[in-house]
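Let's do one together. I've listed all components of the complex below, 982 residues spread over two lines.
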Amino acid sequence: MREEIINIKNEALAQIMDAKDSVELENIRITYLGRSGKLTSLIKKIKDLNPDEKKGAGIVINETKNTIERNLVSQKNKFRTVVREWFDPTIPGIKPRIGHLHPTSIVINEMYEIFKHLGFSLMEGPEIESDDYNFEKLNLPKDHPARSLQDALFVEKPEVVLRTHTSSVESRSLATLKPPFRIVVAGKCYRHENVNASNNAIFYQFQGFALQRGLSMADLKGTLYYFVKSFFGEKREIRFRCKYYPEVEPSGGLDLDCPFCHKKGCSVCKGRGWLEILGCGMIHPNILKEFGYDTKKISGFAFGMGLDRIVMDKFKINDIRSLYNGDITYQI
Amino acid sequence: MRIPLNWLKEYVKLPNKLTILTDKLTMAGHLLDKVEKFEEDIVIDLELRGNRADCYSILGIAREVSALFDIPVKYPKIFHSLKRVDQLKECKNRIDNPYVKRAMMVAISNVKICPSTEKIQKRLRAYGIPPINSIVDLTNYVMLETGEPMHVFDLEQIGGSIQVRLAKGGEKMTTFLDKSLTLTSDDLVWANDNSILSIAGAIGEKYHSISDKTKNIIVEAANYDQANIRRTIYRHNLLTDAGIRHEKELDPNMVEQGIYRFLELIEENGWGKIKPFVFDYYPKPVLPWKIFLNYEDIRSLGGVEIDKKVVKDILKKLNFEIKDENEKGIDTVCPTYRTDVKLEEGVVEEILRIYGYEEIPSKVLSLEIPADITPSYINQELELKKILTSLGFNEIISSSFIKESDLKINFLIDGEKASPVEMENPPSPDVCEMRMSLIPNLLDSISKVINERGESINFFEVGKIYFKKDGKYLEKRKLGISYWVKDKIDFQYFKGLLEALFSLVNISNIRFEQVGNIFNYVNSYNLKLDNKIIGSGGRSNNIFFTEIDLDSILGKSGVVKANLWPKYPPQIEDISLIFPDKTYIGDVINIIKNQKNISDVELKDTFKDSYTFRIWYQDPDKTLTNDEVETIRSSFLKRLKQKFSVTLKT
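Okay, and this is what the predicted structure of the assembly comes out as:
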């Protein structure tokens, strides 16, 4: 009986494929599934089978019936003359509420992701900081000329400041963590500056540092090039040059070609053709010694950059104050 | 610093193309800020860094050009050495202050006060100093040329004696630029018996400076404790050309080069008769210092292999003497003007700088990858922020400071008293305290944009608050949420969002408890987890807000439990109950939920005092019979009646 069913099925499917219109299809349906159709007649015969055969035959007939019906429907759909109903796909959708991260968070997250690939961990630290961690331990003793670049906001003069840079987390990490480590830090920093469109007493910095036997300027350069290419794009031109910072020796700076004038010089890059992106170098031997490290046995690098300029460029925001006063609208 | 190229050219041959010069200088640490035509000259403005005190001069930059392009420096002629004496007979002096490292003085008689030469005037103008007269111009000219600031005193004006001392606290003086100063006992001055003559290293005094009538002068050049001068110039805002040089670490040996160059030009121009004696106070002469440079350290620190011969060549170009050498490295002697190079790492930087940072290979960290030690709360915080955006909240970042008008909210932290953190030098007079809550800034932000941005606004901020407690400065991480819908006050919808948030961070059992109103806000409540306050909230007009202590919830989150759908079906029924006024419905639901074999309770509907609950009766082990459901129902109804005057609505 099984064989008979399969023959019927193949025969029916072949006819369905060859059918020219829906009338023909209806005839096929009657031929096989109608009250006295070929398949229906077989169903009637099931009762004559012995119990073992009964069950198997029932299942196969059922499957066959379903297959024929499915094919009839899909073939029928092909013949349907499509009537074009009026429908407006341009009508606006009813949006579910979608929120957005702040542009600064978006940039930080993106940078975190890049540095995670390079084995960096994320860290954070206090914003109210001691003079010790913010300056002294970072090779910035009192009355050091470089301190004039970082006018601090004082909570208690001269020992308690609002951190002027995220390097304070570097000094805290050097004091407490066990090398090897690679760390990135992002966060709020503060300087005593008159508030205007491009200067804000509050700003964000992104800092990285690594301490591990065998690190050199080549590792620093490679790390930064990887980061810059990933974040700013493969095509940007990079200038890696000597630039003094008291926290590092040898010290360096990384500039990018100005995207607005393509190095011809414009108001954004102050005619220089290049934008200064970050400062970097090998952690200063005085700092390593301060934390009890033997500079012959271990070395480290550090880099830091202001985030606000990068965020403003990426999101085309031209007033730094609007980053932190709720003025931003979000669009996707 | 502005460098007129015609001047620089006098000491070192320059490359033909300007950009070749400025690109190399930039790469080697002196960023080209701008190029400018000045009269018939070209002036390049270099952004010098504070460590290179030796570069704040034309000769300093000439030395850099010389090292970078391997062209010798032609040093200008200096006057022949004068006989050293313990005192000048024209003027007795007392210089021995510990802040003075070196001071030299020479007397000059019959000075000619006249306009200086065309060349000097032009160069001063190109740099940006207005010409005054022969003698003043010459001090400025020599300062720009050599980097050594110097000062002249009118001998008739100062009388027979001069000294360097600390000012008396409160002592007053007027600078030659007519600025009145009240000095502190940390300010170093040059003075005679009666008055202050100049502030050491910074600026001259008004009434004793040279004038058209000046006949005889003393020229002084000195080197001071950099830190002391720096404090003075920042204290009194005296960022003069002398001041910005003295606040850095200048070479005491430069004093000599400066003063003899000055004398040479006096002589050449016939502007006075040089007395043949020099007073030189130099208690601890600075000698060139030795540094051992290990070749291996160039590779291990610099990351680049440089040929030994090239290393030695670079050192020679930089005037570092090679005293001794062996297989391992070089005993090199650092010229005293390089006050920035004290350690071997500094010498390595010098080698790299001249060799070229562009030659350092770029190597992506090939070393073993250290363990990830990111504290879990940082990742959780990032996750939390993403969840909030998925619930429709926009993130804002607001100021860490608080406006004066919001100070009243600044004294409670998690229900406990604390004092705000104040700044001693606030960035602006109306902002002097740090925030102790995220709420005021959050309400501010939302109020600003209400009615401008559609029908509803949801904001959140994740940030720190700051306070002082028991003499310690503390910070806590908070989450602030605010929610506004036009013309609507719908706490339940807002609470639903909060509950969704808690459930997405896998925290259950947060309890909301009404409390007395917080400040002038209404509908205030506390949030409790394990009977500990973890946040609070309220309403201001129709803006709802909540502040949650992140350290209390992050790290507390449970693991997501995946349960199979119970095998035995529930019986679901809706029951309407009538409660008197002021019944906390949350408590009612808790009682029903705590009943055995009730798997869920939902508030379906409220109408006046009638509340309809949907209740799921379900036993994990069997299908409940009607009788069993009846028993469960009467059990929780009994318990409700014990607590509330509830009536069953039929």
